[in-house]
Amino acid sequence: MNATQSIAIGCDEAGYELKEQLKAFILSLGLEVEDFGSHSTEPVLYPDIAYAVASAIREGRNRLGVLVCGTGIGMAISANKVQGIRAAQAHDTYSAERARKSNDAQILSIGARVVGPELAKSLVKAFLSSDFEAGRSGPKVERINALEQRRDG
pTM above 0.85? Predict the structure, then answer.
């Protein structure tokens, strides 16, 4: 698997159906997908899946990631606990794009109970087609990284 073309994806039971649709959509864009689960609508502990996706990105196995849960909130919070990872929840294309361009986010988190499949595809496309622009945002992302280094424990 080519890490520069590989997108990590994961979900909980609430996001399973949307994850499956997004996985097919990402493949249709000519990218590879590594699926970290869930693989059904059976209940799971989503922090474990968020951790697996975020860790794969941190380790360089995947370039970017997409996480899906009911609201997108829990997955984003969980992924952001992994050192070096910036996960952003988005429900509009502008925010999805700016997550990459301004904040150098590596993971997009989406709420399956908040957005429909077509909007979710637009969010993913905006996120995956954007790159960090640094510029005025460069020092801000550097400060975010510095804050992470200051964390206790």
Answer: yes
